[in-house]
Automatic annotation (TrEMBL):
This is ABC transporter ATP-binding protein. Keywords: ATP-binding, Nucleotide-binding, Transport. The keyword Transport applies. Residues 4-238 form the ABC transporter domain. One of its GO terms (molecular function) is ATP binding. InterPro entries: AAA+_ATPase, ABC_AA/LPS_Transport, ABC_transporter-like_ATP-bd, BCA_ABC_TP_C, P-loop_NTPase.
Length: 249
């Protein structure tokens, strides 16, 4: 059975169709890349799946049960966590407190003690143990991105939606983030990763799906999809695709 089944989702913003009849299935254990040009609808899809936005039409099932229409906290407690593109930790709270709060409120930890224990484990997993007692405001961008990951992991999700966790990182930081995504997958967590960096898609994902102007235009194995002319055109424009064809593979 699919872990996530998105069926014929539509979402418009005052006439602008951000998601146009999108259907997507994620099986347990998969790591799937979600790519597409700016404004394609990627974040909107994550917002609709995580309950931040209500779809205009269509349905979403998680582990066989409908989740569309539920509030974000109820969806999170079912085992679906997401990161935010713009990371906004509570700046005056420590790194540990930020993660413990996520474990408590979105992860349904039974007590403060359990939330703190879960938070420590998530911080260790993300390489942030040394930062645990520092204020979140002291972290670098890479540190804040890792904190965002630790917060979502502390919710003990079965499905993790990663919205550009690597944007703005330097090459060494990206390699570290790649390792983390692989380690998360090795724990059996299913991952949907919104990504602009092809390195992450090619090295971490089993499958890739492409959104373009709100429509899903490709879905398949990474090398297959990235060799697709429609996908190259969507990204780089028709002229580039023509030149690519002239030059050959
Ligand atoms: N809350 C909103 N109100 C109005 N329009 C919105 C809203 N959220 C998104 N949009 C519009 O919907 C379209 C899809 O946006 P979305 O942020 O989902 O794209 P994206 O693929 O995530 O882009 P990026 O790669 O730039 O983050 C865009 O045209 C955007 O301007």
């Amino acid at each position: 059975m699919a872990l996530l089944e998105i069926t014929n989702i539509r979402k418009s913003f005052r006439g602008l169709v951000a998601l146009d009849d999108v259907s997507l299935r994620l099986d347990p254990g998969e790591v799937v890349g979600l790519i597409g040009p700016n404004g394609a609808g990627k974040t909107t899809l994550v917002n609709v799946v995580s309950g931040v936005l209500k779809p205009d039409a269509g349905s979403i099932a998680f582990d066989g049960r409908r989740i569309d229409g539920l509030t974000p906290d109820r969806i999170a407690r079912r085992g679906l966590a997401r990161t935010f593109q713009i990371v906004q930790p509570f700046p005056q709270m420590t790194v540990l407190e930020n993660v413990a709060a996520a474990a408590l409120f979105a992860g349904g930890a039974p007590s403060l003690r359990a939330a703190r224990d879960g938070a420590r484990e998530a911080l260790a997993f993300c390489g942030l143990t040394a930062e645990a007692d520092k204020k979140a405001s002291t972290l670098t961008l890479a540190g804040r991105k890792r904190l965002e990951l630790a917060k979502s992991l502390a919710q003990r999700p079965r499905l993790l939606l990663l919205d550009e966790v690597n944007a703005g990182l330097n090459p060494a930081e990206i390699d570290h983030a790649l390792e983390l995504i692989r380690a998360i997958a090795a724990r059996g967590i299913t991952v949907l990763v919104i990504e602009h960096l092809m390195k992450v898609v090619t090295q971490a994902c089993h499958r890739v799906v492409v959104l373009h102007q709100g429509r899903l235009i490709a879905d398949g194995p990474v090398d297959h999809v990235l060799a697709d002319r429609t996908v190259v055109e969507a990204y780089l424009g028709r002229g580039y695709a023509d030149r690519l064809r002239e030059v050959g593979p």
